[in-house]
Every structure is written in C-alpha cells, then in structure tokens.
C-alpha cells in the first residue's frame, strides 16, 4: 500500500511537470500576440518592444522556459497583466467560489445519479429504467451554457422564484471572508441573511452543473449494479433466503459503488470544465470565469497559472479517488 | 507470373479468412443494433441531421449571413419560423446552414484525433517498452486537463476561427483513441500469425500498418461514434465563449451567445440554436448508449 | 406422491436470449425422499444447474418457468408466497456451488457471511450468531477464529468451499444441493471435500442432490442416480441398477466411458454433440445420436415410465407402443 501511494505520487509529479511544459508551449510557442492584445492593434512599435522587454518576452525561448519553471518551483506563477496582482493571489481569491459550486453540484449529481442508476438496474427494462436513462442522456446532451440561460429565463425573469446572476443580491452584505466560500463563511460568522441569499443564488448554477454530471454517474452505477447482480455471490445471497431488499442493499450495493467512486474523480473534472461555462452565464466569481476572461485578453500569466492550477486540482482528485478505491476494495489491500 | 497471382490470391483469401470472426461479429452487431430502440432513434436523428447539412442550400429561405436591419428581432412567424436576430437574419436559415459547420467539425476532428490517436497507440502498443512508456506518459499529461479547459487554451492561443477550433479539439481528443489502439495492438501483436508474417520477412512498419492497424479499427470506430456528441458540445462551448468559430458564421454555440443580451424580450435567438445542439447531441448519445448495450459482452451469447 | 421430500413435475424452463429462446428444461421429472442422496449426471449444458436453481426457486430473467411445478414436502412452489419461498431457502434447502471463491461476497468477511446464514435460519440477530459461526467453521475443519476474519480472496478454493459448506449446513437443511462442488478444485482437495460432505451429511441426516461429472464420485456417494439429457431426466434408478443394468441408450453410452465403478473418468464416449437448445431435435431429443433410433423417436417425446420396479426410463425401446412401431 505504501509503495503504491509512493509510485502514484511520483507519477503525479512527472505528469505535472509535463502539464507545465504543455501549458508553456501553448502560450509561448503557438503564435499568439499577448502584447498586441494588451496594448491594442496599433500601438507604436517602440512601446511594444519596451513592453516585451518588461515581460521578459524578448529573451530566447529556453530562457523564458527556465524562468517559468523556476517560478513554478517557488510557487510563483507571475503577475497577471490584467489585475496587476500575483496570479496566485487571484487564484486564491476566485477558486473558493468554484470549489463551493463544485461541491454543491457533486452532492446533487452523486445523490441523484446513484439513486437513478440503482433503480434503473434493479428494475431493468421497466418504465423506471427507461425514464432514468432518457433523463440522464438528456443531461449529457444539452449544452450547459444553453440550459443555464433557459433556466435563468424561466426561474428568474419569468417566474421570479430564484435570484439572477452572481453569488449574492446587490444589497446583501457579504460575510467576512474566512475560507472564501461564501456559504461556509456565512455560517461561520452567523450571517444568516447572507446564507439564505447565497443558497438561493447557488441553486440554479449547481443544478445546471450537477445535472450534466448526473448522467454519467447514473450510467456507471447502472452498469456496475447490473454487473454485480449477475455475479455468483448474489445467487448465494438469494439462496440463503435473504429478501430482495437485503440482497440489493447489503450484498450488491457496496460492490457496485466501488467503481462509482472512480467516476466521482472524473466527474470532478467535468465539473471544473462545466464551471467554466456555468460561471460565465451565472456571473459566478470563480476560477472558470477568471480563466475565460484571461483567455479573451491573452493575459498569459493568468492563463498559464489558472490552467496549471486546474490540472493540479484534477490530478489531486484522481489521486484521492485511486487511494479511496484501494481502501474500499479489500482485494486491493496488500 | 501466374504462380505469383495465385500466391497473392491465397494470401488474400487468408487475409479475409483471418478477419472472418470480425465480419461475423459485425453481422451480429447489425442484428443487435436493429433490436435496440435507442440506437435506432439515434440513427434516425443523425441521418436527419446529415440530410439537412447536405441539402442546406436548397432548404434555406433566406441568406444566413448578410444582415437586413428592417427585419430585426422579429418573433417566430410563418415568414421566419425561428424569428430573426438583432441583425435581421433569419434564425431558421442560420440554424440550417450551421448544421454544415457542425458536421464539418465532427468529421475533421474525428479524422484527425482518431487518426493521430490510433497511430500513436499502435506504435506504442507494437513497440512496447521505451516507446510505449514515452507515448503513454504524454497521454497521461494530456489527460491531466479537463478537456474543455485545454481546448480553450489552445483555441485562444491559436486565435479564434473555424480551423483553429478543429485543431484545438483534435489536439485534446486523441488520447482516448491512443489508449484504445494501444491495448488492442498489444493483444494482436501476441497472435501467432503475426510471428509467421515476420518470419516471412515483413518489416515492422509493414506488419504494423497492414496487419495490426486494421484489427484495431473497430473499437476505435465505436469510440469515435461515442464521442461525436462531445465534439459538438466542445465546439459549441468554444463558440459560446467567443474562443471558437467567429461571427458571422452561424455556428450554433456562438449563436446562443449572440442572443444572450436579448434573452428576456427575444428568447428565440438563443433558444433555437440551443435546441439544435441538444437534438443532434441527443442523437449521437442515443446511438452511443445503444452501442454500449450492443457491445456489452454479456448480451452476446 | 412419488417422493415425500421433493417432487418435480413436468418442469419446463426457457431462457429468452438474443440468439433465440433456449428451451433449457423440457418437462423434467424428478423426485426424492428424506435423507436420500440423489446423483444428477449428464453432459455439460443438459440442464442440471437449471434444474437445481428451479428447485431453489431461483429462475430469474431472462429465464422463466413456463409450465410444471416443484413440490417441496408436498407444497407447490409456484403457489408459495415470496416470504414462504425465502423461508424455504433460509431454513429447508441450501445450495453450494462450483466456484466457491466467486460464490462468496468479496467485500464481506467470511464470519459475517456465515453468521448471516445462521441468523436467517434461526431467526436471531447476526451478532448473536457468532458463537455458532465458530462452531460451524470448526466442524468443516477450518481454523475458525482466523478464517472468520478473512475475506474470500484470502482463502484457497478448498477452504472457500469448506466455508460454503459451513454456511449451507448451518441451517441443518432438509435438502442440500451441491452443484459440481469439486469441479473447480485440485484433485487432491476434491476427495477431501467429498469425504467431509459425506461425513457431515451422514451425521446430520440431510437429503442431498449431488450434481457431478464424475461417475466414480456419483457411484460412491449416491443411493439413486438420475441421468439428464438435453433438458429431460431420461433415466432414474438406484445407483446399483444404473451401473449394472443401464436401460437408456444415452446412459449406456455414458458408462462406456467408465470401465469400472469407482474409477474416476470424465463423461466422453458418445458420438456427436449436445444439441442446440434453441432448435432442439423433435421427439426424443437424443434421437440424432441414438444408435437404436426408430421412426417414432423423432415424432413424440417418450414418457418416463417404470420399466422395472424402481427403475424409470424415457425411451421407446421399453414401451409397448415403441416395440410395436419397431416391428
Ligand atoms: N442465465 C441463462 N441465460 C441463458 N441461458 C442459460 C442461462 N442459464 C442456463 N442457460 C442455458 O440452459 C441450458 C442448460 O444449462 P445448465 O443447466 O447450466 O447446464 P449444466 O447441465 O451444464 O449445468 C444451457 O443450454 C444454457 O445455455
Ligand atoms: S426413444 Fe428412440 S431415440 Fe430416444 S433413446 Fe430411445 S431409442 Fe433412442
Ligand atoms: Mg452446471
């Protein structure tokens, strides 16, 4: 087990190094023109050169790469061209909002997906199964950005049941910042008005984001459950005289959920991805929107830092999942 | 001369004979496909989509590109089935012509990412050892990004355009095929007949591309079908964010984005292209889900 | 009633598959008394496992019992409620399987799995069953304390089968069904397991259905033998009668592969292969392979009749009708 963890960690370090190279390559080798984007199309060449020098963009490419890798090793991701602050500081500011949204969505999608998947498998080929399959396929088929807009239109503009964009209404006093996660901070500071308002604001984006992830979880749970229900030990459990409920919940479920755990890691990735679009639509002040804005103005330190950070989070999630898997399945324990 | 042709024929027959199980397999698959409702519905949707793309120029009632300010922001009516946008363009016509753009993206991305992935996968699986290690670690690195995020970065760095959208999505998407083709190539490499062919004097590249590669194709093709829905969603996502296909080209994602600021009073601008995306992706996902059922070895007895 | 413990009457079971409808059981007739040991033999795919699962009431999608019934102690299983069925499995019939390791739940400790059986059989809480668990594990010759805390993958095949036996016998069932309990095990272990079963069943007085490929084992272990072919019981008699005086052509063919009683040998020895049960032969399903086949044989299924006292066979060679037609 210890060796497995060590190997897994080493592999992750290697992958993260590669990831940094890819990100550097994207931003520096592919011909984009950050200075042009920054200064506007017809800036005087003098100014452009001066700017390039200032940013270190006139150095040879390998020197730039060296600076960049050294920076990363020191936890320095450079200064954002747009906000003029260290990128790390920007990330620290925006990431908690994304994390909060992702946690909410993952709760929705795991709860919904696992239940749908189990029902689907247990009542295979019944209307429950058909409904749940179509419901979940719809979830992966509808573009997140469009679903978001339509839900905003319906629940905010037309019905007025839920608030519109952003994390809080204009006149709600935000809680004192502790973790950066608004709902958590509201609880910690006892600011219940902000909590209620924040909760109302997170429902729509979390639902939109969670729905698309529900589908894959439901599908894997169903497949995994069907697989388990076909195994010999299920026949043994039935032969013992156990009731259908006990067979499913005591004997099948634990086995079936082991592969689902793996999927939750992948889901986390798809949530980060979906967050980019959802945050843009719902004006959510998270990392996804930060990266999109950086991309649109070619704020390259922000692009590199943000992308790198997301890859790091994604790899960490997968690492945690793999380790959990090893703990859950007695066959993996050595 | 004659003996050579006979030998060739023998080889051909041999070639076909070896692939017979695959052909049988496909026949069986066809049979299963016919009995899987979801796959059928999906296929119908996709066929409609392709037909629309082919006959778009005949179907469209209006010019999808040039603006007509006198007909701005009209709600859906018999003249304009889906209404008009802020430039007075007929949304129905734009959605119809947009199908060609989406189809083109699907086609090229599948070709490039499928081709690149299969090639690298076969090379990795065939040579094994060092080559394999390198290619697979590179795959891991690409897989460490959520794919839309990486595609966004590529698209932005390259500059938003149709071509760059295609490049960005392809560069991000090849990893799946590489892993598949590698696993398949490793299996095939161990077959005794590959050894026999080598003994006859065939070189590595000959064996790889003539004998191993063709056997890897069916799982890759299946996976390609499964991923086509995702390709459209990614392209549309890029378009929506302004990092993909640029206006005035009627890419569906960017059309949804066009209508954002008019959402409340002119809901139709964003709604119809969104429905078009959902419809086509649904078609691919129905087909994909059906295929997954069909491929389920437990159902094949 | 033919048997006071179990009576299977004209049982027909089919499986709906993509390939077509598999007519797995074609009117099986089988019966046995308390404390009897019945061997069920026949080539792979002839329906032995399906028969045993039917007796357990465990035929499920895509399978279906389309006609016939199983009577256990005189009660129709088709008419039993869910609860009665569960109770019957928990308390009166147990089963052990071919692959002991995969028949145990991989994420539960052995002790828990045995305890579950005991709690079900004696209507006590699972926790209260642990003393009994240790007793049962000891009874089957396992290091009880240690084994109870292990997971199935940590056991060898032989140990796992012992644990299965402990589980199955913990309810002291009226009937134990053992479906090829030793086929997946090493040869040396096979004998040990059969010895253990023999000993325990003798002490506890359970009736046993032993499904096996091994004619030698069947001869040693069983009082009665039923021979199955392609979904039918084609012959049933005492072990001695079957081996000394087989009547059915199929049984004769089977026995040619076994030179002497007591010597293990796999079933081979008959020309041709087991028929495809999607399109089974008409009439007597054995007729394409039968050296004595007559016209009549391909037209109507021969009934299982008592050709001699206590010796039943389904073959036109032994019916009046058949003889008429043959002449
Ligand atoms: N779950 C199932 N699905 C489809 N066919 C089955 C199933 N179980 C058994 N069968 C079919 O029923 C027939 C009898 O099988 P079985 O009883 O397992 O034979 P055996 O005598 O070797 O135990 C076989 O043709 C088999 O293919
Ligand atoms: S009934 Fe006919 S075919 Fe069947 S075993 Fe008897 S003789 Fe042979
Ligand atoms: Mg069997």
Walk me through the structure.
In chain A, 77% of the residues lie in helices and 0% in strands. Chain A has 2 domains: 32-76, no CATH class; 87-333, MetI-like (MetI-like fold, Orthogonal Bundle), CATH 1.10.3720. Chain A is mainly α. Chain B is mostly helical and 301 residues long. Chain C has 11 helices and 12 strands. Mean pLDDT of chain C is 87; it is low at 259-268 and 322-327. The chains are: A mainly alpha (334), B mainly alpha (301), C alpha/beta (327). At the A-C interface, helix 10 and helix 11 of A face helix 2 and helix 3 of C. The complex binds adenosine-5'-diphosphate (ADP), iron/sulfur cluster (SF4) and magnesium ion (MG). Adenosine-5'-diphosphate binds next to strand 1, strand 2 and helix 1 of chain C.
**Biggest sheet record of chain C:** 8 strands, mixed
- How large is the count of helical segments of chain C? 11
| Cofactors and ligands | adenosine-5'-diphosphate, iron/sulfur cluster, magnesium ion
Any idea of the CATH topology of the largest domain in chain A? MetI-like fold
Shape of chain C: globular
Biggest sheet descriptor of chain A: none
Q: Structural class, from helix and strand content of chain C?
A: alpha/beta
What gyration radius of chain A follows from the Cα positions, in whole Å?
24 Å
Annotated CATH homologous superfamily of the largest domain in chain A = MetI-like
Low-confidence stretches of chain A: none
**Overall pLDDT of chain C:** 87
Helix content of chain A: over 70%
Q: Give, in order, the helices and strands of chain C.
A: EEEHEEHEHHHHEHEHEEHHEEH
Secondary-structure topology with pairs:
The complex is a heterotrimer of chains A (334), B (301) and C (327).
Chain A: H1 2-29, H2 34-39, H3 45-55, H4 61-73, H5 87-122, H6 127-141, H7 144-158, H8 182-189, H9 192-229, H10 232-239, H11 244-282, H12 287-296, H13 300-328
Helix pairs in contact in A: 1-4, 1-13, 5-6, 5-9, 5-11, 5-13, 6-9, 7-9, 7-11, 8-9, 9-11, 10-11, 11-12, 11-13, 12-13
Chain B: H1 2-34, H2 37-59, H3 91-127, H4 129-143, H5 147-158, H6 162-189, H7 192-199, H8 204-241, H9 252-258, H10 268-295
Chain C: E1 6-17, E2 20-32, E3 37-41, H1 48-56, E4 63-72, E5 75-76, H2 82-91, E6 93-96, H3 110-122, H4 130-139, H5 144-148, H6 157-169, E7 175-179, H7 187-204, E8 207-211, H8 215-221, E9 224-229, E10 232-238, H9 239-244, H10 249-256, E11 305-308, E12 311-313, H11 320-326
Parallel strand pairs in C: 3-8, 3-9, 6-7, 7-8
Antiparallel strand pairs in C: 1-2, 1-4, 4-5, 9-10, 10-12, 11-12
Helix pairs in contact in C: 3-4, 3-6, 4-6, 6-7
Bound molecules: adenosine-5'-diphosphate, iron/sulfur cluster and magnesium ion.
């Amino acid at each position: 087990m210890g060796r497995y963890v060590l190997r897994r960690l080493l592999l992750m370090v290697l992958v993260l190094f590669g990831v940094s190279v890819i990100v550097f390559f994207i931003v520096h080798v592919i011909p984009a023109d950050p200075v042009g984007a920054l200064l506007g199309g017809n800036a005087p060449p003098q100014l452009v050169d001066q700017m390039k020098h200032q940013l270190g963009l006139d150095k040879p490419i390998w020197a730039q790469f060296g600076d960049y890798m050294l920076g990363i090793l020191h936890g320095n991701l450079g200064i954002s061209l747009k906000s003029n602050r260290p990128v790390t500081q920007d990330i620290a500011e925006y990431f908690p909002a994304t994390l909060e949204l992702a946690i909410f969505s993952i709760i929705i999608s795991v709860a919904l997906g696992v239940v749908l998947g189990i029902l689907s498998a247990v009542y295979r080929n019944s209307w429950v199964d058909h409904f749940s399959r179509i419901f979940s396929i719809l979830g992966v088929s509808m573009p997140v950005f469009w679903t978001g807009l339509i839900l905003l239109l319906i629940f905010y503009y037309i019905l007025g049941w839920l608030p519109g964009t952003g994390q809080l209404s204009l006149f709600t006093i935000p809680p004192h910042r502790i973790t950066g996660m608004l709902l958590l901070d509201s609880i910690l500071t006892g600011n219940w008005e902000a909590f209620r308002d924040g909760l109302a604001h997170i429902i729509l984006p979390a639902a939109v984001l969670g729905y698309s992830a529900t589908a894959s979880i439901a599908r894997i749970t169903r497949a995994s459950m069907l697989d388990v229900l076909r195994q010999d030990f299920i026949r043994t459990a039935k032969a013992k005289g156990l009731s259908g409920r006990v067979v499913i919940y005591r004997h099948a479920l634990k086995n079936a959920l082991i592969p689902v755990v793996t999927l939750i890691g992948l889901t986390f990735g798809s949530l980060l991805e979906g967050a980019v679009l959802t945050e843009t639509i719902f004006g959510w002040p998270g990392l996804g929107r930060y990266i999109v804005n950086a991309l649109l103005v070619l704020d390259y330190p922000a692009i590199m830092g943000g992308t790198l950070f997301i890859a790091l989070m994604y790899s960490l999630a997968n690492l945690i999942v793999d380790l959990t898997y090893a703990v859950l399945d007695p066959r993996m324990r050595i | 001369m004659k003996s050579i042709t006979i030998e060739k024929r023998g080889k051909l027959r041999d070639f076909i004979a070896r692939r017979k199980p695959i052909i049988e397999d496909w026949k069986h698959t066809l049979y299963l496909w016919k009995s899987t409702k979801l796959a059928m519905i999906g296929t119908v949707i996709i066929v409609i989509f392709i037909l629309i793309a082919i006959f778009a120029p005949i179907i469209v009632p209006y010019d999808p590109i040039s603006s007509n300010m006198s007909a701005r922001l009209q709600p859906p009516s018999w003249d304009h089935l889906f209404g008009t946008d802020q430039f007075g363009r007929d949304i129905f016509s734009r959605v119809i012509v947009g199908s060609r753009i989406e189809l083109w993206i699907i086609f090229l991305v599948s070709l490039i990412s499928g081709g690149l992935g299969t090639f690298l996968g076969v090379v990795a699986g065939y040579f094994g050892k060092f080559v394999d290690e390198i290619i697979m670690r590179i795959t891991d690195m690409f897989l460490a990004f959520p794919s839309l995020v990486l595609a966004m970065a590529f698209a932005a760095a390259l500059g938003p355009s149709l071509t760059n959208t295609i490049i960005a999505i392809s560069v991000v998407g090849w990893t799946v095929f590489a892993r598949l083709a590698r696993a398949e190539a490793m299996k095939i490499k161990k077959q005794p007949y590959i050894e026999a062919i080598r003994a006859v004097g065939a070189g590595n590249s000959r064996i790889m591309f003539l004998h191993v590669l063709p056997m890897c194709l069916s799982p890759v093709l299946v996976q390609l079908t499964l991923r086509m829905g995702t390709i459209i969603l990614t392209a549309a996502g890029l378009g929506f964010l302004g990092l993909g296909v640029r206006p005035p080209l009627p890419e569906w994602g960017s059309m949804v984005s066009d209508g954002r600021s008019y959402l409340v009073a002119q809901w139709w601008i964003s709604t119809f292209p969104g429905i078009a995306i959902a419809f086509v992706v649904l078609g691919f996902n129905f087909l994909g889900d059906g295929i997954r059922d069909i491929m389920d070895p437990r159902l094949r007895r | 009633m033919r048997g006071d413990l179990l009576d299977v009457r004209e049982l027909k079971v089919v499986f709906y598959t993509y390939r077509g409808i598999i007519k797995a059981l074609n009117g099986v007739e089988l019966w046995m008394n308390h404390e009897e040991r019945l061997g069920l033999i026949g080539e792979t795919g002839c329906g032995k496992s399906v028969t045993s699962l039917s007796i357990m009431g465990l035929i499920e999608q895509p399978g279906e019992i389309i006609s016939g019934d199983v009577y256990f102690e005189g009660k129709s299983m088709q008419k039993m409620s869910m609860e009665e069925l569960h109770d019957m499995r928990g308390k009166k019939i147990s089963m052990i399987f071919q692959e002991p390791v995969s028949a145990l739940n991989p994420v539960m400790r052995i002790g828990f799995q045995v305890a579950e059986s005991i709690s079900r059989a004696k209507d006590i809480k699972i926790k209260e069953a642990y003393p009994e668990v240790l007793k049962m594990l000891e009874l089957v010759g396992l290091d009880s304390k240690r084994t109870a805390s292990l997971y199935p993958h940590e056991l060898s095949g032989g140990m796992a089968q012992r644990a299965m036996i402990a589980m199955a016998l913990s309810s002291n069932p009226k009937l134990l069904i053992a479906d090829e309990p030793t086929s997946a095990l090493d040869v040396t272990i096979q004998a040990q397991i059969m010895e253990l079963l023999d000993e325990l069943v003798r002490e506890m007085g359970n009736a046993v259905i032993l499904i096996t490929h091994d004619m030698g084992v069947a001869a040693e272990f069983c009082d009665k033998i039923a021979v199955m072919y392609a979904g039918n019981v084609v012959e049933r008699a005492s072990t001695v009668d079957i081996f000394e005086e087989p009547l059915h052509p199929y049984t004769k063919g089977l026995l040619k592969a076994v030179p002497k009683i007591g010597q293990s040998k796999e079933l081979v020895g008959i020309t041709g292969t087991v028929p495809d049960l999607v399109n089974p032969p008409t009439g007597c399903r054995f007729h394409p392979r039968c050296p004595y086949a007559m016209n009549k044989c391909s037209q109507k299924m021969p009934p299982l009749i008592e050709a001699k006292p206590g010796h039943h066979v389904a073959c036109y060679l032994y019916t009046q009708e058949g003889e008429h037609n043959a002449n």
